[in-house]
Design brief:
- Helix content is about 15%, strand content about 30%.
- It has three helices and twelve strands, in the order E-E-E-H-E-E-E-E-E-E-E-E-E-H-H.
- An eight-stranded mixed beta sheet has the order 1-2-3-4-10-7-12-5.
- Helix 1 crosses helix 2.
- The radius of gyration is 19 Å and the shape is globular.
- About 35% of the residues are buried.
Length: about 280
């Protein structure tokens, strides 16, 4: 696909997989908010891509890859703001919906949320992430009475990594298992293990990437849900690919401001007006 994304694409409300890789688009139209069944959004190697808009709020499971996009504006270095970091707050909304459905026994599947973005800055991990470390593991102190706190949703795991240098460029490649553990002292006990995978495209080799995965606190087994357990740790088995790790606590109220300010509507006339304005400023290839 070259140039602009056809506007009639947003009429495909049952679309689950959207591959925009290796295109010269500058932005994704806000019409994407109509794709309520979207699960996979691939934008790898879009050299002109600058931003990802707000995503459908109904999504509880989505995989996003936007590696090899040098101009893409990812999470801000300061604390994210609802009106500026639309991708971040869209992901938070999806995560909260998943946790709500999980508590109401409306979902049975495991969360597959996994995002791969360009790595930015010295470490690749946003500065506002609560706990950061060099290497393949990071731990964080659990909140007081976390197992009873309905506003505490879970954890956002960030890691900068070096994609594999392989010849088979358009297949999924394993990043390895992320081991999640909990502790009441110095010794950690594993509570879950997650296999993460990603694509790599020709020309991406050697470029660092930023991975993001959400883990709901509800997935911690019942036997560990008490005040005895004080710390949570994420550790990756393939340490030679992980350069830095970060972990951030996610609360429901962190998303409420976004919901109040949300531009969760789609106006085709407004979209066309914006598109015309952009075309008047620059040529889209």
């Amino acid at each position: 696909m070259e140039g602009e994304i056809p506007s009639d694409l947003w009429c495909l409300s049952s679309l689950t997989n959207l591959n925009l890789c290796e295109n010269n688009i500058r932005s994704i139209p806000t019409g994407i908010i109509q794709l309520s069944q979207l699960e996979y959004l691939y934008m790898n190697r879009c050299p002109m891509l600058e931003e990802i808009p707000e995503l459908p709020s109904s999504l509880i499971n989505i995989r996003i890859e936007a590696h090899g996009c040098p101009h893409l504006k990812t999470f801000s270095s300061s604390h994210p703001h609802p009106t500026k970091d639309l991708l971040w707050f869209s992901l938070l909304n999806s995560f909260e919906l998943y946790v709500q459905d999980l508590r109401c026994n409306k979902v049975w599947m495991k969360l597959r949320n996994f995002v791969v973005l360009p790595s930015r800055g010295r470490t690749g991990i946003p500065k506002w992430v609560k706990e950061k470390s060099m290497g393949c593991e990071v731990s964080i102190e659990l909140p007081n009475k976390w197992y009873k706190d309905d506003t505490f949703l879970g954890f956002a795991l960030f890691f900068s990594f070096v994609p594999r240098d392989v010849d088979d460029e358009k297949k999924m490649h394993p990043l390895g298992f992320c081991e999640l553990s909990i502790s009441q002292g110095d010794q950690f006990i594993r509570v879950n293990s997650i296999l993460l995978k990603y694509h790599i495209y020709g020309g991406d080799k050697g470029l660092d990437a930023l991975g993001l995965y959400f883990y709901p606190q509800n997935h911690i087994p019942n036997e560990y849900r008490s005040k005895r357990w004080k710390y949570f740790k994420a550790c990756h088995e393939r340490e030679h690919r992980i350069k830095n790790y970060g972990i951030h606590l996610i609360y429901a109220q962190a998303q409420n401001n976004h919901k109040k300010r949300s531009r969760n509507h789609y106006n085709p006339a407004e979209e066309e007006s914006q598109s015309h304005h952009k075309r008047s400023r620059h040529h889209v290839f």
